[in-house]
Amino acid sequence: ALIMKPQVVFVLGGPGAGKGTQCAKIVENYSYTHLSAGDLLRAERNREGSEFGQLIDSYIKEGNIVPVEITIKLLRKAMEETMQIDEKKFRFLIDGFPRNEDNFKGWTSVMDGKADVKFVLFFDCSNEVCIDRCLERGKSSGRSDGNRESLRKRIQTFLQSTRPIVSLYEKQGKVHTVDASRSVDEVFADVKAILDKEG
Ligand code: UP5
Ligand code: MG
């Protein structure tokens, strides 16, 4: 059978901007598979016998970005497994990646020609909104980076490292920006309009 080239939408935004929440809603309404880079890294950290467990753990706690080789390995494996089970599932939302220049260059060098990046969905909201949402969730999520100190570092990393990657894609005309400070449903209405137009 002809194996389709993966079609990728990168989903970016600050910590707590609502990337995971909106991706879950997209999956209910469109034929996309949601891959959260953060979720894949947390699962690898928790996997017994993982050679990267400790390294991932320390990067996440500090709000730093894990070396791209590890993240791409997990993303590729997840894409390949999905397409092996169902070859029609070749459309992916890659949530929380690429977050810095190392990620961007790593993706380009490894995946160029192997996957198409259709566009970037950027969930834009203030640092205050991001912090409030993360602290609120942190009460129950048990995430090791939900405390104020980790959160401060995550915001800093977002501004210093991830925001420039969004700008880089903006220069290529590939970014759809959504005001993520509104309610889940209001944000999703904008997301729908973008996906209906982009296909
Ligand atoms: N919520 C959501 N939308 C709302 C709305 N419109 N109104 C009100 N509340 C809303 O939402 C966060 C919280 O806000 C939830 O309680 C939700 O109900 C509420 P969520 O959808 O989870 O937001 P999301 O943007 O997904 O937030 P998340 O915390 O997952 O973002 P991060 O980008 O910080 O986390 P991620 O898991 O992507 O990465 C974690 C760490 O992993 C990074 O800091 C980094 O160390 C590492 N990482 C890498 O190194 N490389 C990668 O490629 C990816 C991650
Ligand atoms: Mg998330």
TrEMBL record:
Residues 136-146 are annotated as: LID. GO terms for molecular function: AMP kinase activity; ATP binding; CMP kinase activity; dAMP kinase activity; dCMP kinase activity; nucleoside diphosphate kinase activity; UMP kinase activity. It comes from Esox lucius. Its main location: cytoplasm. The gene is KCY. It is an enzyme of class 2 (transferase). Residues 36-66 are annotated as: NMPbind. Consists of three domains, a large central CORE domain and two small peripheral domains, NMPbind and LID, which undergo movements during catalysis. The LID domain closes over the site of phosphoryl transfer upon ATP binding. Assembling and dissambling the active center during each catalytic cycle provides an effective means to prevent ATP hydrolysis. Binds 1 Mg(2+) ion per monomer. InterPro entries: Adenylat/UMP-CMP_kin, Adenylat_kinase_CS, P-loop_NTPase, UMP_CMP_kinase. ATP binds at G16, A17, G18, K19, G20, T21, R137, R182. This is UMP-CMP kinase. Gene3D superfamilies: P-loop containing nucleotide triphosphate hydrolases. CMP binds at N103. Pfam families: ADK. Monomer. Catalyzes the phosphorylation of pyrimidine nucleoside monophosphates at the expense of ATP. Plays an important role in de novo pyrimidine nucleotide biosynthesis. Has preference for UMP and CMP as phosphate acceptors. Also displays broad nucleoside diphosphate kinase activity. Its cofactor is Mg(2+). GO terms for biological process: 'de novo' pyrimidine nucleobase biosynthetic process; pyrimidine nucleotide biosynthetic process. Belongs to the adenylate kinase family. UMP-CMP kinase subfamily.
